[in-house]
Structures are given as C-alpha cells and as structure tokens.
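Model it.
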Amino acid sequence: MSCCSIGKKNLYDLSERMNVEDKRIINCNAVDVNQLMPLKYQWAWEHYLNGCANHWMPNEVGMGADIELWKSNALSEDERLVILRNLGFFATGESLVGNNLVLAIFKHITNAECRQYILRQAFEEAIHTHTFHYVVESLGLDEREIFNMYNEVPSIAAKDNFEMKYTAAIMDENFSTDSEDGVREFMRNLIAFYVIMEGIFFYSGFAMILSFGRQNRMVGIGEQFQYILRDETIHLNFGIDLINTLRSENPGVWNAQFETEVYAMIDEAVELEIAYAEDCLPNGILGLNANLFRSYVQYIADRRLERISLEKKYHAKNPFGWMSEAIDLPKEKNFFETRVTEYQSGGSLDWG
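Modeled.
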C-alpha cells in the first residue's frame, strides 16, 4: 500500500470520527441532517429496527368473536362504556401524537437516525388510528360518536387539551431551540407526549382493555391493543432516550426549577388520568375500579420519573400484577403469525 493511499485512509477515518462527534440531537449545523451514516446514537437505530420487527396491520386480526359478543346481551352497560370510552380516547390520542411528531418534533430534530425512527413512529401512529377505525367499523359503532368524543366527554377533552398546549408552544412561528428557554420548551413537549401521553395516559387504557382478554372476551380488540402496546413500549423507550440525551447535551437546561416543573406536569397528568378512570369505571367492572386505577397510574408515573432520573413521588404499588403477563405475550402463542414472534432485541425493552 502506498503512502498516498494510507494518507487518504487516515484522512477518511478522521473525517468519519469528526462527523460522528459533531452530530447532535438538536441545533446541529456541522453535519447534514440527511447524513445517516456513520451512526452516533445507536439506541435510535435499535428502536427503529425494533419498530420494523413489530410491523403489523389491523386487518390481520379477526374480529368475528368480538362482533358476536358485542351484538349479544352478554356485555353489561358498564363494560360497554369502558370499551367505548377507550376507543374514543385512543382514536384522537393517537392522531394527536402523530400530528405532534410530524408538525412539531421532526423539524427541530437535527439528527438523521432520530429522524429515521420518528418517521417509523409516525407511520405506526397512522396504523393505530387505522386500527380504531377498523374496530369501530367491525362492531358497527357510530363513527361520529367515537371519533368526536374528545369534544363531548370532558375527561377525554381535558387530557387532549393538556397535550395540545405543548404542541402549540413549539409550533409558534417564532419558536426555536437556539436558547436554553427554547430547549426547555422542546423538552416539555417531549415529556408531555412521550412520558405522559404514551407512558401514562395510554397505559391505563391498555389495562382496561386487556382486562377483557383475561376473561377471553373481546379477544380481537385485545390483540389489537397488544400490538399497539408493543409499539408504544418502543415509542416510550425512544422518547426516554431522546430526553436523557438532550439533557446530557444541554446540561444548563435541566435545573432544579425545571425539575419542579416536570413534577408539576406529572402531577397534573396523574389527576387527569384518575378523573378519566372514574369516568370510565363509575361502578367498577372485571375486578377494576377507580381506586385501583389511582394506585396503578401513580405506580406508572413513578416508573416514568425514574426513567428520566427523577425520584419517585407516589410510592404506589402495582395493583395489576397480571399486566406483565398480558404484555409479555406467552411464547407458546405465535402472536405474529405472519411477521415475527420475538423482538430482535426484546431483552432490552422495558415493558411497564
């Protein structure tokens, strides 16, 4: 090998190292936002691969048993209320997450591998919205009633309004992440959507619907929700990694005052979710009631706080230990009959 060729190789290696080191989640002017390789944030790529491994479509799940049960007299009015309220919340909630990703988060992320995952997540949000349309159509429900619940049901409207204000803040035409205040605002959005919407609001809904599956009822909706839950677990893990990386790259942003504000956001979200549980379960069903959901929501909130390096606040116990079994699908069941049966990196996922 000639001296000239060695020099070119060393120069290339140096350039590659500089590109990797120069990459940043936001406010990166040194590396083209379209430059995927070489990767700096391996976690973002892993989440992307895990999302691809979990690919599914709603019409792959049969709804025959659900249709028969829904048309029968075997479901009480309270049970039907739980199902309808959850369909109403998720139908809008998934859309809000998708809009936030595409209209707010994506344009401020200056890292290609993170953008790659966000594009994958945005598609998954569309699949989830498609799922609720598929379920509503299969059961012969009033589409306008379900998809308009965010306007008609106060407990759903309150949660949606909580989230939308954080999207509005970073969609202002004068917003940028060039200052510490701008970065804080961006992080508020990430916490509101990844930690709270997908990490708290969605999880109590999963528990309500999956409780039917424990009794081998509404099994089609249950399978749909298990697919969605797997997607949401990756969304949550990506969001946590994104928040924690931003914190390390912008150390002046995460101060004591901001931590106090984050706790206040979580507090408000927990109370909103408890009010929603009370609305869904006025009389209790299937061994579920609003008091149990208070403990569950607080337990989930503590776990989310710990994931962003904050201390627990509620010290609540998980009243739904069976959720681990519902989430960690039994291995003897070939859940992904036409796709995959395991995540490529399933051992690294946090299921709660």
